[in-house]
Every structure is written in structure tokens, then in C-alpha cells.
User: Fold these one by one.
Assistant:
Number 1:
Amino acid sequence: MNIQTHENTLQDIIGHAKEYGFVFPSSEIYDGLQAVYDYGQNGVELKNNLKNAWWKAMTQLNDNIVGIDSSIFMHPTTWEASGHVDGFNDPMIDNKDSKKRYRADQLLEAKAEEYTLSGDKEKGDALLQEMGRLLGAEELEAVRELIISEGIKCPVSGTSNWTEVRQFNLMFSTQVGSVAEDSSTIYLRPETAQGIFVNFLNVQKTGRMKIPFGISQIGKAFRNEIVARQFIFRMREFEQMEMQFFVRPGTQAEWYEKWRDTRLKFHKAIGLPADKLNFHVHEKLAHYADAAVDIEYQFPFGFREIEGIHSRTDFDLRRHQEFSKKKMQYFDPEVNPETGKPFGNYVPYVVETSVGADRLFLAAFSQAFTKETITDGDNVKERTYLKFHPALAPIKAAVLPLVKKDGLAEIAQEIADSLKSSFRTVYDDSAAIGKRYTRQDLIGTPFCIAVDFETKEDNCVTIRHRDTTEQERVPISELKERISKAVAVERILEEI
Ligand code: GAP
């Protein structure tokens, strides 16, 4: 028997995600809304399983990390202090002929990648460096000239008829207050991190937290992404899973390395293979960072960021201290061996881990999506299935009576009822058994439990394993324990 696995395209993945209830375009009956998506009945289970694994990996595995759930709306000064009002911009350029808008940095990055792929990595790196320098110095006219001198053309019109480069703020704003005179402008948060910073003292004091400690949070974030492409990779409304780790100044480099490595282990533990994961160290650092690295996954459209690890210095807490006039300090009673005195009061430094739940979903889904051609002599079969880590699979077990009659349906229903308080189980008695196996393969159910005539005699059922399609006979009394163990989130946590 020969099994040939096919390369996946993003189009295959989008099609499968829609057809099997994972991801739908938002408000599709009105033709959708660009860069906004809804999760369907299977998608929400997968996403919840990912969030649960992350939450436990952060809080349950670390005695010194606790979670919060802060609001999407925050006092508007938050975003002045954080630098988002002035600095959360993308440099945009329009093509006058096609009227299409692009991110200037992405046009140049694509050109640099072209050089690298054609063997001239040095030229590619030099271009990136020059771009970083010009953007850092806000020399937008020079960025435009660079785009033109590099011969970059609009993929739609094919011309270099570019407008000037303009900075475009990514925050969505809205009004609070019922009457116009009383209302004030507030923003939909563009990151969940600031909700953690403004609660730093609340958590530290009420939780009696001692440095180093972390605060984690899962929540929605909003960005008015102009170039919204690649499905749920870049959305306008998305979910972040962030953790801010507060450390003693001077120790940030070692924590940065620790968190970079721990987070990589998490991605491997959920089933992303090592050769499809990459570190991309930032050359051009954000205004608040002294080191930054992206963890990238190889999507069908190339290696792209799924998570950022940022050493954010004391920038955020210091700025909130300045804008709020409230002290954002921690008293460290530990004795400094160099001075023989306590470290005393300081504004902590922060190492942040920030992963998008939707991007992680897309990575897990892309990795799981498997299309095979199985050749066995003259017999050629196509098989598509989702090879999720069992702890991530939306449905863990499907109970399938071979036929409805002769009491098999009742036995199968009873088994399903006995399992469903332990893990997500479905019962299905429609269509031929082979068709029902395929149905479960297509949504990634790791275990199918077939109830046949022998079950009535021996109290055993057949478990069919999704990835190998192998079958084994198992006593009904062992099902709960065996499957519970196989699908438990511990299986991920133990690998971290
Ligand atoms: N607090 C730091 C921060 O927000 P970021 O690199 O801008 O850093 C962190 O975002 C993560 O959030 C990214 O690695 C990505 O997974 C996710 N993310 C950012 N923008 C996104 C978007 N428009 N759509 C989906 N996910 C996004």
C-alpha cells in the first residue's frame, strides 16, 4: 500500500473550514464583511480547546502567573500613554491607476524576499535595513522613492504610479455617552496588554504577587487593518492571548529567552512540527522594546508570525505612571548581593508573550488538514481528514451503531450518554458506516466507536482510530477511561 500526501493550498483550507462548520464569513447573507469571520459549531470547539490549552499552560503550570479579564473599552488616556494614539500606524501607499491601497513596508518586504529567494540574500537584507531606517526616521517621501527605485509595481494595474506614503492609525474609535455634548471618543482596544498594565497594582496587591510574576489574559482586540488578506490570518476583530511577565530590571534578557523557548515548546506540544516553526528576530524594534522575536509557522502561503515575544522594558508602566500620576512601583525586599541592601522600589520590566487565537487556529487547522491518495494494487482511494491533536479535536468520540435495528441503536445511545459528561461525544446512526467514518474524519474526530451484533454478546465495541484507520476491540467498560486519557489537555501540558 502506498500513501501519497498532497500539499495544501489556502483555498483548500478555506473551503474545508466553511463546508464543515469551522469558519464562516461574517454576515454572509449580506455578502460578508471584509476581514471579519465567524466560528461555526466545530470551529468554536477547536478555538475553545486552543484557548483552554494556552490558559492552562500559562496559569496552571506556573505558580506565579494569574489571569484577568479586562474590558475592551478603556479610559482614552490609556492609549495616549501606551503610544497607540501617536504611533500605532501603518505606512500606506495607493496606486493611482488601480486605486488599490498597500502597506508600503509589505511591498518592500516582498521585494526583499524576492532577492533572497533568487539567491541574493545580502541585497534583500540591505533593502530591509534601509526600509527600517527610513520608517524609523519617519522619512515617508524617501520610502516612496525607494518603492519606485526598486521598480515595485502594483499587481493589479502593473504600474508604478504611486501616491505619497501616509501614516494610517489602526485604532477603531467610537463614542460613549448618550448626548453629543457629553460624549467622548474612546477606542476599541488594539491589544489586550494594556488591560493588564493598568491592573498591575490591583493584581500585585490583592494577589500578594512577588516579582517575578505574570498576568495573562484572553480577549478580543480590534485593528482597522487596511490590507486584510489571507483568511483569518489578518482580521479586523480578532482574539489575543497575552501574558505580561513582570521582572526585576536587569533580568529581562534571561526571562525573554526563557519565555521564547517555553512558548516554542507549546506550539510543538499542540502538534505543529519543529521544521515548520521558526524564530524571526526583529531588527527594527518597536518604540517600547529592547528585544523582540516572532515565532513563525509555515502556512501554505509561507512562514508567518503566530506569536510575538517582546522585552518591553519598563516603557508601559512608566508611561502609565506619568499619565495617571499613580505610582506603578513594586517594593522588592530581597537583598541585592552587590549593595547588601534590599532592591527596594522600582518600576518592573516586562517580558510579553502575545499570540493570536485566530492565527493559532489557522496554524492548527492547516497542519491538521490532510489529503491523501492511497494506492493498494489497482485500488486508488482519496482520503481527506483533519489530524488534530486529540486534545484539540472539536468532537472526541462518535458512537455509531452498525444498524439501527435489533437493539444496537439503544446500546449505542446508552454508550454515548455515558461518555458525554467526560468529553464531547456525538451519536450518529444515519447512512452506511463507511460514510459515517468519513464524516467524522472530515471534522477530525479521533475515535469512532462502532456497536455491532457481537456487542450484545461480548459487551465490547470496535474503536476505529482516525489517523491509521486501524480498528481494535475494546470492552465498553474501558471506553471512558481510555478515551479520557487520550483526549485530555494534560497530554499537551506534559510536553511543555
Ligand atoms: N501586545 C503586543 C501585540 O499586540 P502584535 O505583534 O501586534 O503584538 C500579537 O500582535 C499577535 O496578535 C500576533 O502575533 C498575531 O498572532 C495576533 N494578531 C495581530 N494582529 C492580528 C490581526 N489583524 N488578525 C489576527 N491576529 C492578529
Note: The mean pLDDT is 95.
Number 2:
Amino acid sequence: MAVRKPKVVVTRKLPDLVETRMRELFDTELNLSDEPMSQEALAGAMQRADVLAPTITDRIDRKVIDQAGERLKLIANFGAGVDHIDVAAATQRGLLVTNTPGVLTDDTADLTMGLIMAVARRVVEGAEAVKAGAFHGWSPTWMLGRRISGKRLGVVGMGRIGQALARRARAFGLSIHYHNRKPVSPRIAEELEATYWESLDQMLARMDVISVNCPHTPGTYHLLSARRLKLVRPHAIIVNTARGEIIDEAALAAMLAAGELAGAGLDVYEHEPAINPKLLKLPNVVLLPHMGSATMEARVDMGEKVIVNIRTWMDGHNPPDRVIPAML
Ligand code: 8YV
């Protein structure tokens, strides 16, 4: 049931603009230190709040959901992915879960394209060499990467971000292939001149660049397993801006170290923020700190979505970005 000025607990520091608006609209408790909450602190927040506004750094499992107070009604996630929330357990307890899709699509697709370029053209390696004083003048055989144009990109998961990446990649001269639960609409397939692969195995074995763009669900955990990674051709590169759990990180690191894959660009990790130490040592790997949607514009838009979801719920309506467990 909607309340007049609900108690909203925000678990991390958000942009000032978002926090100020939330203070104006709700009885909002902010986290000014930005320190991630322990499970105990999270359980406490869920006891005193009507609405919890968490982020990916909160593990909202069945245990904390079971300890939630009677007044908690809405989990308005600041982020698109909800794999850190047990949505089924929340729903069983009568809690609504919302997320912030759409507003981080372009930024995440931009960064994915950036990672493809960075790995293929050794951008980070080159920049580090300059800063280390290792640039002694042009050489015809130094820092040779691989051309992007004319290559095949295999997109694993052709949702909003996958499609936005495909549009960018087309402009760079890549041809688009994809694996998805179902094909995209004929209009989008035509626009992108995209080739659909029902079999992920078949697609992986044929691509030059592979990008992971699907959500992490029980069904996509280790989708790129050790067995599947072995199907990828040794000259190929893999990028992941979705979730680390989708790739078997240990198997990927071992293959990269053994030269069985040309390179990788990773923004997310299986045991985030921990990173497989093998990856840290490899020159053919570009590692970023989960910054796919890290633009001021995206963060403000994400905050706006959180606010709209809370307001709509307060008004007794179905929030626009409600996450339905069956859809996961
Ligand atoms: C967000 C993300 O910044 O939205 C997502 O799913 O992966 C990130 O880009 C993060 O989730 C914030 O909670």
C-alpha cells in the first residue's frame, strides 16, 4: 500500500542532483560515506525502510529478504542488472522489484566498442609504453594490432545493449552475427544485416570478435564455459561488459595465458572486485573497473528512473520498470 512520504534508504552515494531530488520527494536516508553495506547493515535498512534503493554492491538474497520489516514494499534498484537480488524470494514476500533499463544502453555499448578497439589495436599497451618512456620513434613493425573492419562480430545476447553495440560495430565495418533466445524482429535484423545463430557453439567457432551482452541468470552462468571457449578460434578476441559470471574466468585466463586466444577486454569479473591474478599480468588483456555505464548522464538518468519508479508506486500504480521473476 502506498504511503505519503515513504522512508527510502539509498545504499550508496549517488550524484548530488539525484540525492537532492530524493530528499525533496521522500523521507530519504543517504549513504554519504559511500561505504558498501554489510549484510547486517542491509538487513537493518530493510527493516526500517518502505523502499530500498540498492545497487549491484548489495547482495539481496533470500536471507536478508526474510528479515525485511513489514513496511518494506519496494526494492527500487539503481542499475539495470538484478542478478544481485533474489527477485523470486522478493516477489514471494510481496515486494516489488524495479530496475533502470534503457538509460545506460548507449554508454555501455560505447565502452564495449572502446574495449574492442583497445584490444585489437593495443591502445592501452601503446599508451603505457609512451608513459614508460619506451617510445623511441616510429617503427614499421612496432605495436601492430589487428584490423577491425571486415571482421565478424558475434554478439551473445541481442537485447538493448547488444543491438546498440551492433549499430556501432556496423559503422566500424564489422559484420554482425548474434546468438539470442530468439531472433530479433525482421526489421532490426534487416537494419543490422545480422545473422542469427540458434547454436552458440556454431557461432563461437566462426567469429573474430565475441561480445557478451546478455544478463546473468541461472541459465547464462558460465555460458562461455571452458568447453565453449575451446571452440573460439585462436586469433579471436572476447569482450565482456555484461557480468563476469557469464564467462568461466579461470578457463579464459588460462587460454589467454597459453596464447589460445588473441586477447580480451573485460569490464566485469566473476568474483568482482577480485580479478583472476593471471589476467593482471597479460599484455593482451584490457581490464576496466566495471565502468560500462559510468557517465554522469547515465547516473543521473538512472536516478531519475529510480525516482519515477518510487513515485509511481506511491501513487498506487504499477512502476514502469517492474522486474517480473518469470522474465529473468
Ligand atoms: C551499474 C550495471 O552501474 O546497471 C547495471 O546492470 O552493470 C552497472 O552499469 C550498476 O549495476 C549499478 O548498480
Note: Residues 55-56, 78-81, 104, 292-293 surround 2-keto-D-gluconic acid (CB under 6 Å).
